[in-house]
Amino acid sequence: MKKRIAKKTNDDDVLEIVNFIKDNMMTKSEGATKEELAKGLFSIRSQMATKDDIANMATKDDIAELRERIVSLEKGQEKIFDTLEPLSRAHDKDSLTLIDHGKRITRIERHISVK
Question: Which of 32, 38, 92, 99 has its Cα between 20 and 30 A from that of 76?
C-alpha cells in the first residue's frame, strides 16, 4: 500500500481557494456549462502534484536512515577528535621546546662570539 503525501497548505492558500470559489460561484439561474466545469477542473488539476512529481521525493524512512547515518558520522568524528587532541597538545609542547632550545642556542652563540 502506497502512502499518500498531503500537500501542506497555509492560510494564504486557503484564502486564495475561498476567494476563487466566491468569485466564480454561480447562482442557480446562471448554471455552469460543461466547458466552464472542464476549465475549472483543468485549472485545479494543473496545480496538483502527480505520482511522477512525487516519485523521487524522500520518504520518512529515507530521512530516518539519513539521520542514523549522520549520528554515526558524528560519533566517528568525535573519536577522531579524541585521538587528535592529545597529539595536537604534544605537538604544541614540542614546538615550544624547540623554540626554547632555539633561543638558548642563540644566547650561547652570542655569548661565545662576544668573547
Answer: 92
Closest listed residue to residue 95, CA positions, set 103, 66, 17, 13:
103
Provide the pLDDT for residue 10: 72
32 and 64 fall within a common domain: no
- pTM beyond 0.70, yes or no: no
| Residue 27: all three cell numbers together | 447562482
Say yes or no to pLDDT of 106 above 90: no
Statement to judge: residues 70 and 21 lie in one domain? no
Instruction: Look at residues 46, 68, 64, 55 and name the one whose alpha carbon lies nearest to residue 3.
Output: 55
- Residues 44 and 60: beta-carbon distance below 8 Å: no
Distance in Å from the first CA to the final CA of the chain:
95
Could you tell me if residue 1 is inside a domain?
A: no
What are the angstrom distances between the C-alpha of 108 and each of 111, 113, 114?
5, 9, 10
Residue labelled with grid coordinates 560519533: 75
Residue 78's domain spans which residues? 58-115
